[in-house]
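ligand=iron/sulfur cluster
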Amino acid sequence: MGRKLLLEHIDVPGIESFEVYRKNGGYRSVEKALKTMSPQNVVEEVQASGLRGRGGAGFPTGMKWSFLAKPEGVPRYLLCNADESEPGTFKDRYLMEKIPHLLVEGMIVSSYALGCNQSYIYIRGEYMWVLEIVEKAIAEAYANGFLGKNILGSGYDLDLAIAPGGGAYICGEETALIESLEGKRGNPRIKPPFPAVKGLWGCPTVVNNVESIAAVVPIVNDGGAEYAKIGIGKSTGTKLISACGNLVKPGVYEIELGMTVEEFIYSDEWCGGIANGKKIKACVPGGSSVPILPANLITKTAEGVDRLMSYEGLAEGGFATGSMLGSGGFIVFDEDQCIVRNTWNFARFYAHESCGQCSPCREGTGWMEKVLRRLENGQGHMHDIDLLAEINKKIEGNTICPLGDAAAWPVAAAIRHFREEFEWHVTHPDEAVKRNFGIASNHMPLV
Amino acid sequence: MVKVIIDDIEVEVEPGTTILNAARKIGGDVVPPAMCYYSKLQGSGGKCRTCLVEVAAGSTADPRPMPKLVASCSTPVMDGMIVKNKTSERVYDNRAAVTEFLLINHPLDCPICDQAGECHLQDLGFEHGKEGTRYEEKRRTFDPIDIGDKIKLHMNRCILCYRCVYVANQLTDKRVHGIMHRGDHAEISTYIEQAIDNDFSGNVIDVCPVGALTDKTFRFKSRVWFLKPMEASCECTKCAGKAVVWMFGDEIYRVTGRKDKYGEIEDIDGKTAWICNECRFDKKDKSQWNIEGPRVINRHSVIAQNQYLVDERLESKKLTGK
Ligand SMILES: Cc1cc2nc3c(=O)[nH]c(=O)nc-3n(C[C@H](O)[C@H](O)[C@H](O)COP(=O)(O)O)c2cc1C
Ligand code: SF4
Ligand code: SF4
Ligand code: FES
């Protein structure tokens, strides 16, 4: 059994309530931090833990915190990014739904560390029922003196509020999230200035993922050094993985970073192997925006070494033969699945979700989606494949925010590893249309 | 002051100046094109990506090149920065790509578009475009709509540069105009086709870099190169009353703000000379204006067509017959 830090008490009945959570050691980190540690001590523990942001980019959390500007007389804000919209990623939802007090506890300790007196949890609009669960947890924390004025008599005040999002993927990008919180259209801002200097209402702001904030709780409880002992290399601690696709046991798992991909997919403790006795064809290991891996590169790297579930392990080989841990949305495709169809499906998502500010992303994502739609519907040409590769090269790196890259990478990787399948769609148009994947057809009409 | 080198030319500028404005200080063809940046509109820029340049050295302190191309309109210069615009093939390629992207959903209806001759996308297309298109898909189309009785929106031509949104935000009150939807289905609109009803709303037409927002009192009446742009002023209580009147013979066909060589409204007496709707739409009678004289137009502009300079040497040849 792997060690669990976030989901340790997940199966305790009633753990979503304050009472049960508290009985199981909840809010210890708040007592410890507020009574025995300075805010700077907490930041140092997080730095020592080596925790990397769990929202996708993997930027060290402690370092991000240390960048926060602290001008006199200006408030600072901590925003929790609970927008979670990357296809394949549903780990934050699980955490908030099952053990909401862990997030509230993490928000209190993190806000204390950063010197914030007002923090927000930005929850995606589609998670309304989750919002109600977290709202209840916040109310309980207020009622028990963990939020509000003079928390535990320490002299520290904190207000915590929820901001529901409008249901746009782009609002998960940190500056778009800030715009949205300010009541504006969720368009990413041009950086610099970075939020650490000029964020919410022009004030210094930290934006962190739900899981990153929750991880601060065990880090404060047990110490950063203890946390850093788990994992491998620069990938310390545990990570929530939302596993889905053609697996025997899809679900949300907490893993110790550094376990092998092989064990994660095939052992009964985790995903239990590929469903229906099929073979694995491909895997997108970190949410829809990361490069897809073909069967031969999933459990082993190009050098034939075991691939590990870690930031470095999944990136081994760079973009040519590797991928990324990203947000931990682990999507597995069996031998019957169509890569072109899936690539189109992802492209549809990005074309729909591009905020439309920058021309390469706005026009490029729309163009790729239409070409892929034609290919999947048996109306493509051979030259479309190179055209797609070229469009994504012209989007990549030329946009305001990384959504452009996120849209380009999956298409580039799918063509790199599965080119023959794209070509098959051109040479076998009738068969491409008639295939049945055992799922309801959602072919969009060609307009 | 900080020193920066753009296309091998050194220039000194105030700290905080953007690469684009440093290039504008040099002038000529080291200036990157700008479709969305508009110095008079706060917050504009960064969106269209036509002004991307290569930073070959970040600064004297950190001379490493920047890995990605950067938007020159929103990137401040650093002391010792080395920038490549026209000297970079990468910049040219990516600008060509941006032009291709912009032309995906922009019809090439220059023969009937009122912006012909004054359109920056036309210039970009000329410099970077190819005669064919690789886009085989159906383009998005919209019916033209009236935004009030003076302005018509051809959303087909819009490149979503946001300039008109900033005008609506910064110059008009009770804003009803903005961007709806996302991605390539995003569109400029007023809230359920409301009129933009404000003394300064006509300025959205002046800032639009393409022919998406047109002046209903002028559209289809003439081509700009058939008209004589004259500087004119009037006693106006709402604006400074300094405009350009575009004449054919004695008739005023249209009135616009006075724009500089970058297509931006000029500053007059330290203030941006936005004109009011009354000057723009209602004063079409020569007697309402004090015509100051012809506007200086770049000789290479299509607007300079038919406005011959008299070449004295040729004239003397004609006279002497030699
Ligand atoms: C288009 C886009 C969508 C994103 N969506 C999310 C999201 O839903 N949740 C999240 O935590 N981070 C998301 N991010 C990353 C955030 O911008 C930011 O890096 C992250 O919240 C930082 O938290 P961390 O340092 O704890 O990982 C997104 C980024 C982009 C470009
Ligand atoms: S890359 Fe796409 S989503 Fe990001 S700012 Fe540009 S248009 Fe918007
Ligand atoms: S209507 Fe014109 S000014 Fe407004 S966004 Fe479109 S192109 Fe820009
Ligand atoms: S002018 Fe710089 S991005 Fe548009």
